[in-house]
Amino acid sequence: xxxxxxxxxxxxxxxxxxxxxxxxxxxxxxxxxxxxxxxxxxxxxxxxxxxxxxxxxxxxxxxxxxxxxxxxxxxxxxxxxxxxxxxxxxxxxxxxxxxxxxxxxxxxxxxxxxxxxxxxxxxxxxxxxxxxxxxxxxxxxxxxxxxxxxxxxxxxxxxxxxxxxxxxxxxxxxxxxxxxxxxxxxxxxxxxxxxxxxxxxxxxxxxxxxxxxxxxxxxxxxxxxxxxxxxxxxxxxxxxxxxxxxxxxxxxxxxxxxxxxxxxxxxxxxxxxxxxxxxxxxxxxxxxxxxxxxxxxxxxxxxxxxxxxxxxxxxxxxxxxxxxxxxxxxxxxxxxxxxxxxxxxxxxxxxxxxxxxxxxxxxxxxxxxxxxxxxx
Length: 376
Ligand code: SF4
Ligand code: SF4
Hints:
By secondary structure, the protein is an alpha/beta fold. The chain folds into two domains: about 1-270, 3-Layer(aba) Sandwich (Rossmann fold), CATH 3.40.50.11440; about 295-375, Alpha-Beta Plaits (2-Layer Sandwich), CATH 3.30.70. Helix content is about 35%, strand content about 20%. The chain has 16 helices and 16 strands. The protein has helices at about 15-25, 30-35, 60-70, 90-95, 100-105, 110-115, 130-135, 165-175, 180-190, 230-240, 250-255, 280-295, 300-305, 320-325, 355, 370-375, and strands spanning about 1-10, 40-45, 75-80, 110, 115-120, 125-130, 140, 145, 150-155, 195-210, 215-225, 265-270, 310, 330-335, 340-345, 365. The strands form four sheets. Strands 1, 2, 3, 4, 7, 8, 9, 10, 11 and 12 form a ten-stranded mixed β-sheet that branches. A hairpin with an 8-residue loop joins strand 14 (about 330-335) and strand 15 (about 340-345). Helix 1 crosses helix 3. The longest helix is centred in the middle third of the chain and has 15 residues, at about 180-190. It starts with a strand and ends with a helix. About 45% of the residues are buried. The protein binds iron/sulfur cluster (2 copies).
């Protein structure tokens, strides 16, 4: 049996979190293995410069609690993620509350500019930051969120962050279909799978709605832990109210690694059948359905009748230019005197990168009346 251990936890109190984590490690038979490590790389979700209250990134107190435990075990700790877009890493760390971790605990926080990359495989070639492959072990610290393009962000998808920021956009361009894109994510997960000793999910404050940065922060009050990222994602999907068999990343991963639902045992405060109250996954499911239709061979025909495209709010946009630099098809530009990016719809592949990386949540998906009527 593969164990997923759950805890109901409503706030970020370091003492309480440490108690939960030790219990979770013990109940999932991982405590001994973790104690035996000499060094470990922590992989939080640091999507971009968002304050912890927004529910977008792994909370710094969640990470602090784990660091204190690992320091007690005399384990050398480092941390890394590759945020999306072109935000300065230092700015992301500061906004997400991680700068203090470096000072307080003296841990190493790797920066892409000093670490370098490996290039692996062919068609596509994967560009991976070196520390993820050079480290002895990884503890994965995903955030629990819905996501229009992949339906859910959790443990497996967190390893898309081993790819440096701007290189990610290239995979969106090459694989605009959500199922094909899920294969890319599964491949990045597979590259580091053997290094992962534990997955500890921060679902205390998560996010629902369209996500992964422009949804609604929600107090889910959940921590999940497991040695197995796929089993953890299946339990997390259940809690949000998804049918996990309809989430491509999860079903492709379960198939590849031959994991059946019956093999998963959920322990702790939540059961496999439990669904959290007040979680809105409908918006995300509908938008995902639309994206699938738009990535079929019929897309050009459908596009004539069903107009869907990103729009930008002049009230929120600060003209930072992130979306323009990150757009994989150069569909966005700033024209003279414009306060928002200008979209060339013929180039847009609806990858939603511009929505994902906008630090102001100024970008959203606009649907024409026909789209709303027939695709909702
Ligand atoms: S929409 Fe405006 S604020 Fe958002 S990333 Fe683009 S330029 Fe920056
Ligand atoms: S405009 Fe936005 S959704 Fe369209 S291709 Fe560029 S980043 Fe993707």
